[in-house]
Amino acid sequence: TITIFTFSKSFMFAGLRLGYLVAAEETVRIVNKIMVHQLYSPSTLTQYMMVEVVKGRRDWLPRVQTEYQRLRDLFVEHLHVETRVPEGTYFLFFPIEKYLQGRDYWEVIDQLLDAGVSVAPGEDFGAHFTHYIRICFTGEPPERLIKAAERLNKVLLGESNR
């Protein structure tokens, strides 16, 4: 088993590209040989930023989990589009094919961007997801999440903002 962890997701340090791998010692040696040519090393500053985070993870992670669930529930409550409520992520990933209403998929993506909502196109996650979108429901204050849900509703369902 090779298990890979990232500080980006657990500790809200997106963009720092810092994580670690847990595996048998021989596997770690092999991966290290590969990685040394892909990524020389993370910056010293990034590594120092993680020291206190790792030391305090037992206090930090339950609070983050609770906050992510609160934001998820708030976002889903205001979103009037059918979607499965995720249990262990901070993204919603759902099909929008039935909301195209005669529009091209990419036209809807552009309309979402024009409305101020950035989504990741589903095809980035595999060929079977060409009519899906992924949207993050954390990293913004609650009032902005509500506004994003309203904008999604407007573009996908034609609802006016309340």
Please explain how this structure is put together:
The structure is a single chain. This protein has about 160 residues and is α+β, with helices and mostly antiparallel strands. It has six helices and five strands. The chain has a three-stranded antiparallel beta sheet with strand order 3-5-4, with no helix packed on it. The longest helix has 22 residues, at about 55-80.
Instruction: Strand order, main sheet: write it out.
Output: 3-5-4
Q: How far apart, in Å, are the first and last alpha carbons?
A: 50 Å
Identify the overall geometry.
globular
Number of helices: 6
Helical content stands at 40-55%
Secondary-structure map:
Layout: E1 3-6, H1 7-10, E2 19-22, H2 25-38, H3 44-55, H4 57-78, E3 91-95, H5 105-114, E4 120-121, E5 132-136, H6 142-157
Antiparallel strand pairs: 1-2, 3-5, 4-5
Helix pairs in contact: 4-6
Question: Which keywords apply here?
Answer:
162 residues; alpha+beta; three-stranded antiparallel beta sheet; two-stranded antiparallel ribbon; globular
